[in-house]
Design goal:
heterodimer, A: mainly alpha, 5 helices, 82% helix, B: globular
């Protein structure tokens, strides 16, 4: 299971930058280089939208993409480091509790960014922005903080057991 | 007040080595060394029972509390 998860994370880490990079490129072209053409295309499908709002929405998406890619990288990297610590016999350490807390904070940041971007899209494009609020990420963040706290307790219990014959 | 483990004295009295004790009670030599050298932080009752059975002694024979 851990080997499979580690393999998946390696794929995700590469895909995050590769796919993210392509999306960023597309948004730069659509939001800046060929902004007018992109807006015209959007207006053909939804004539009641404003060209300025479409272009702004693309630029805001680009602005959100860049930190999002970095946050995803942090998330994948911390999970990979947790998994890598297991064969070394160092799974139950304060380092891994800290990594779980980092994953929690990253999830909070991702959720905040997502909601901010989503609300901007709703304001600019209405229901055609394709965003709807989700509470799942906030629950995942809470889960990570709880896990990190329990992990820290486990580390203390393990330390107590060391030296028990 | 440190707790002193008197395993050396008991082994000598029974004419047994630490290795023989380890084999007899199926506790690793490493763990018995930790106990013997006073580095153990705790001992399980099962370990205590095994040692006392093998050395034919009481727990009180194994430990002493010495003043600082």
């Amino acid at each position: 299971m851990l080997r499979f998860a580690r393999g998946l994370l390696s794929v995700f880490m590469v895909a995050n930058w590769a796919v993210g990079g392509l999306l960023v490129l597309g948004l730069v072209v659509g939001g800046f280089v060929r902004a007018d053409q992109t807006a015209a295309l959007a207006l053909k499908a939804h004539p009641h939208l404003s060209a300025a709002n479409v272009i702004l929405a693309l630029r805001i998406t680009l602005l959100a993409m860049l930190p999002m890619m970095w946050l995803c990288h942090l998330l994948f990297r911390n999970l990979a480091e947790i998994i890598d610590s297991v064969p070394a016999g160092k799974a139950f350490t304060e380092d891994n509790a800290a990594r779980l807390r980092t994953v929690g904070w990253v999830t909070v940041a991702v959720s905040t960014l997502d909601w901010g971007w989503g609300f901007a899209l709703l304001r600019l494009l209405g229901p055609y922005g394709g965003w709807s609020p989700s509470f799942g990420e906030w629950l995942i963040a809470l889960l990570m903080f709880v896990l990190a706290a329990i992990w820290s307790e486990g580390v203390k219990m393990r330390a107590d057991l060391e030296g028990t014959v | 007040m440190p707790v002193v483990v008197q395993l050396d004295a008991l082994l000598a009295a029974r004419g047994m080595t630490l290795t023989e004790l380890s084999q007899r009670i199926d506790i690793t030599l490493a763990n018995l060394s930790i106990l013997k050298t006073g580095k153990a932080r705790a001992i399980r009752f099962s370990t205590l029972e095994a040692i006392c059975t093998a050395l034919e002694c009481q727990p009180g024979d194994l430990f002493a509390v010495r003043g600082d």
